[in-house]
Amino acid sequence: MPKVTFVKEKKTIEAPAGSNLRQVARRNGVNLYPGPHQVVNCMGFGMCGSCRVIVRKGTNHVSPPGAWERFTRFLNPVWFFARIGREQEMRLACQCTVEGDIEVETQPPLNQCDKFWA
Fold it and tell me: Does domain 3-106 have CATH number 3.10.20.30?
């Protein structure tokens, strides 16, 4: 079974291949949501961008971004600006599945547009 390592939480979890990353985190007590998003979020429908994570290692071991995740990059300004400078490694936990061993950073800081023009 693939292993998911949550860096900030110092927790490694075994998950069945094909498992949704958000569900794996929630089942094992890993908090994906910062601040008020713990209560106010889209419940895994991929619309709010608050379950964003950075896949530090094993980006090839998660499912590729689907049509909905690609679409919401432009629909949601928070998700759009959070990704600047991290386009390849930042994902929505609710929209990706675990296919192999990965290392994930939860609740990455927002990019305050410091790399917008770089």
Answer: yes
